[in-house]
């Protein structure tokens, strides 16, 4: 249920509505193709992810000793709700306030992602992780579908003229997350047991020491270490897509509200289907193979996104049609949606399979570290690149990152990685 609830934030605030609102209305530098707004958006998200990089490994190690995963999850949940609701007070020109609230809400949300992932080994065995992880992602996309469809239909278009209505997107996302996550805290239990701290050590010092131990462990857990490199590259590309897909549609494709709504519905259903379908495939053929297939799909989808305006013109000349680029763009949305949830689900499953027993929260903290460090790098890179060459050309960076992740993943052996993880027990 937590995956169902928290997708309202990432879809309404990061992907579909608020990113477009921030760049085109709050900052609103239309004369420069919104390049300043895009750069500030990238920077805000990158700062939030760097905050996660600085704290998630320590928190993950601390949670293993204190058996405090549930408490950390609750704190991140409350902070996300409060900061997201406060976006209501960000008006056109209030760039600093909007920037700060995005950093805070995105940081809290991202920490919650890492905390909830740490529960996966508690609720699923090794043979069930793919299915359970895929189900979680699919429920998340269905939750996001409901929340975003309702918001788009109720609040209308993203524009300065409609600002008095669309500004309610923050409070609505906060309320959806607040209410739908309640069952998680009613039913989810902390299964770990607190362990006694070594004499003379506090949680922070111990957490830092555990980070060093985790880094040293990666020398033995070679496949996990190599996979983290691949995951870093893939999550860089994925972070760009999540943050810029609907901004790209508005600024490069020039779609209308109808096409935006169709794209959202198409990607949500295809993402939910992909998460469930590929989750079953993970359990049968292995999470690594599934992950690599999704990377191939991503490279194809990004190339199609990049070439959409020119491809539409070529098809119209060749076929004598009058298709609009916004509807050709929907084709890329289907491919991207299928790969979206399945790529993240397979990555989360592989971390769970490679992690040594009893140290899941610690290594999921590193999973959060890798993905958020990757996101920060990707967003800073694309923000700077689009400021120089424009958003359409800058989006090709994603294809390069997904292709690089695929090449690195060839060096991972899933069976060997699982065996070494099982052998490294405290």
TrEMBL record:
Entry-linked PROSITE patterns: MFS (PS50850)
SUPFAM superfamilies for this protein: MFS general substrate transporter
Domain Major facilitator superfamily (MFS) profile: 223-426
Entry keyword Iron-sulfur: no
Regions crossing the membrane: 7-27, 39-60, 72-90, 96-120, 132-156, 168-188, 224-247, 259-281, 288-307, 327-351, 363-385, 391-412
Chief subcellular location: membrane
Record-given protein name: Major facilitator superfamily MFS_1
Keywords annotated in UniProt: Membrane, Transmembrane, Transmembrane helix, Transport
Native species: Halorhodospira halophila (strain DSM 244 / SL1) (Ectothiorhodospira halophila (strain DSM 244 / SL1))
GO cellular-component term (any): endomembrane system
Membrane-topology descriptor: Multi-pass membrane protein
Keyword rRNA-binding found: no
Origin superkingdom: Bacteria
Record's subcellular location: Endomembrane system
GO molecular function, one term: transmembrane transporter activity
Lineage: Bacteria, Pseudomonadati, Pseudomonadota, Gammaproteobacteria, Chromatiales
């Amino acid at each position: 249920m937590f995956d169902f609830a928290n997708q309202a934030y990432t879809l309404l605030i990061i992907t579909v509505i608020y990113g477009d609102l921030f760049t085109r209305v709050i900052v609103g530098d239309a004369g420069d193709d919104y390049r300043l707004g895009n750069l500030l958006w990238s920077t805000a998200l990158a700062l939030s992810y760097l905050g996660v990089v600085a704290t998630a490994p320590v928190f993950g190690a601390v949670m293993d000793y204190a058996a405090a995963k549930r408490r950390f999850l609750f704190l991140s949940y409350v902070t996300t709700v409060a900061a997201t609701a406060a976006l209501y007070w960000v008006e056109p020109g209030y760039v600093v306030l909007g920037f700060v609230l995005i950093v805070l809400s995105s940081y809290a949300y991202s920490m919650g992602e890492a905390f909830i992932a740490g529960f996966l080994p508690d609720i699923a065995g090794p043979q069930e992780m793919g299915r359970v992880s895929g189900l979680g992602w699919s429920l998340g996309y269905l939750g996001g579908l409901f929340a975003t469809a309702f918001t788009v239909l109720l609040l209308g278009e993203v524009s300065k003229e409609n600002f008095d209505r669309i500004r309610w997107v923050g409070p609505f996302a906060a309320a959806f997350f607040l209410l739908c996550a309640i069952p998680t805290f009613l039913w989810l239990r902390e299964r770990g047991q607190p362990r006694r701290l070594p004499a003379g050590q506090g949680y922070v010092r111990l957490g830092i020491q555990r980070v060093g131990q985790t880094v040293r462990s990666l020398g033995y857990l070679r496949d996990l270490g190599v996979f983290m490199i691949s995951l870093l590259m893939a999550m860089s590309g994925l972070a760009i897509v999540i943050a810029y897909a609907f901004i790209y549609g508005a600024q490069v494709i020039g779609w209308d509200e109808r096409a935006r709504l169709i794209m959202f519905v198409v990607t949500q259903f295809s993402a939910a289907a992909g998460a469930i379908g590929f989750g079953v495939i993970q359990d049968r053929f292995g999470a690594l193979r599934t992950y690599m297939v999704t990377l191939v799909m991503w490279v194809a989808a990004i190339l199609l996104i990049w070439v959409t305006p020119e491809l539409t013109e070529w098809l119209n000349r060749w076929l004598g049609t009058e298709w609009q680029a916004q509807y050709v763009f929907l084709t890329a949305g289907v491919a991207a949606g299928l790969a979206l949830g399945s790529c993240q689900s397979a990555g989360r499953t592989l971390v769970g399979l490679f992690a040594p027993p009893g140290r899941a929260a610690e290594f999921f903290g590193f999973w959060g570290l890798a993905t958020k460090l990757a996101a920060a790098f990707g967003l800073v890179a694309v923000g700077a690149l689009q400021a120089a060459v424009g958003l359409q050309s800058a989006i090709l960076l994603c294809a390069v990152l997904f292709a690089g992740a695929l090449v690195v993943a060839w060096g991972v052996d899933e069976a060997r990685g699982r065996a070494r993880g099982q052998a490294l027990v405290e």
